[in-house]
Amino acid sequence: MINPEELNKDVKMFKNGNSFAFRVSKQDREFLSANESTEFEKVVSPDGKEITFRKVEKVRPEIMDIADKLMDKNTDLMKRLERL
């Protein structure tokens, strides 16, 4: 089992074509259960001092079905909420 505290390190940006990047180590990737198709949300702090990457979890289809049915059942309520 990987201890997340051991993954906290200073890293440097590097040039990658016309862009810059941060390296994600093999241990980081394994801990995150990430691969090339894993999507992350990037959040930059208002003061420009922090960048946070959050793993985007896949939405389970059955949850979307339930949400759609709930929205359909409460259409009037949803329209009223939109106007707030």
Q: Key terms for this structure?
A:
alpha+beta; two-stranded antiparallel sheet; elongated
Overview of this protein structure:
- The chain is of the alpha+beta class.
- 33% of the residues lie in helices and 21% in strands.
- The chain contains 3 helices and 4 strands.
- It has helices at 26-32, 61-73, 75-82, and strands at residues 13-16, 19-22, 40-44, 51-55.
- Strands 1-2 form a two-stranded antiparallel ribbon.
- The mean pLDDT is 90.
Short structural summary:
This protein has 3 helices and 4 strands. The chain is of the alpha+beta class.
The termini sit apart by 48 Å
Sheet with the most strands, sense and barrel status? 2 strands, antiparallel
Q: C-alpha Rg, in Å? A: 20 Å
Low-confidence segments, ≥5 residues, pLDDT <50? none
Task: Calculate the mean pLDDT score and round it.
Answer: 90
Percent of residues in beta strands: 15-25%
The helix/strand series, from N terminus to C terminus, equals EEHEEHH
Query: What's the count of strands?
Result: 4
Structural class estimated from helices and strands: alpha+beta
Query: What is the percent of helical residues?
Result: 25-40%
Subunit arrangement of the protein: single chain
Number of helices: 3
Q: Strand sequence of the main sheet, in spatial order?
A: 1-2
Shape summary: elongated
